[in-house]
Amino acid sequence: MKEAKEASARFAEQLAEVKEKGKMKEYILEAHRGAAFDCPESTMAAFRAAHERGYGMIELDTKFTADNVCVILHDNTINRTARNSDGSALANDIRIS
After folding, report:
1. N or C: the chain end with fewer CB closer than 10 Å?
2. How many CB atoms lie within 10 A of CB 6?
C-alpha cells in the first residue's frame, strides 16, 4: 500500500512537471474505483480522496441486488472486500443478486 501511494505521488509530480513545461496541454487522470490505494475501493472515502488528489474521472462498477437496489461493487459477491467483525475472511460466498 505504501509503495502504491509513493508511486502515485511520483506520477502526479511528473505529470505536473510535464504540463508546466508545456509538453502536455491537457490530461485527465482516472481513479480506478476511487483512490483505492489510500481508501477501501468503491467507497465515498475513496471517491473523495480521488477528487482531493485532482483526479478528473472516477471509474466505478454498479450492480443491482436481488431486491433491485443499485449498489457500487466490482464483484458479484462481497467476499473479496467484506470481512467478519474479527477481520477474518467470510467463509461462504455472499452474492448480491
Report:
1. N
2. 11
Say if CB 42 and CB 61 are below 8 A apart. Answer: yes
11 in Cβ contact with 53 (< 8 Å): no
Q: How far is CA 15 from CA 53, 54, 70, 73, in A?
A: 13, 11, 35, 30
pTM: 0.65
Write the single-letter amino acid at 33: R
Cα 76 → chain centroid: 17
Q: Profile the chain (97 residues) by mean pLDDT over runs of 10 residues.
A: 71 73 70 86 92 89 92 89 88 86
